[in-house]
């Protein structure tokens, strides 16, 4: 009879004692990647994928989020995927030279540069033609931290002629 009682108790309680317990995923957002991974491992989680992606707010090398998310209840030993920041997204500067500024103005403004500084100089090119740009074509920049400097043509220099109305050919 005691063997039957032990068998019944074992069937009822042993699975609960051996099953992984429920735990909450810790919040490691904005922690340095290495520290976050250590925290997750120390709390009994396995690390799945670590994925780098750009983020406008989280500094490069810090955790953006996890999957499952912080605060979710999961089984101890669950696999956690960690997404970390490569910093703000960089874009390649296009070639604006020899194009009319009015034609490309909305394109340039769409990149969200910190500022656009325009200098106008006399040149034989059509008025509004981009003569120079800084940063140069192909440079990788973070638009929200970059000032785009453009030199535009104001057209040829105008010259003022002396009024020669009262002069004749000999004078």
Can you characterise this structure?
With 171 residues, this protein is an alpha/beta fold. Helices cover 22% and strands 29% of the residues. The protein is built from three helices and ten strands, in the order αβαβββββαββββ. It has helices spanning 2-18, 33-42, 101-110, and strands spanning 22-24, 46-53, 63-67, 73-75, 79-85, 91-92, 115-121, 130-134, 140-141, 147-153. Strands 2-5-3 form a three-stranded mixed β-sheet, with helices on one face. A three-stranded mixed β-sheet has the order 7-10-8, with no helix packed on it. The chain has a two-stranded antiparallel sheet with strand order 1-4. It is rod-shaped. The N and C termini lie far apart (141 Å). The relative contact order is 0.14. The model has no long low-confidence stretch (mean pLDDT 89).
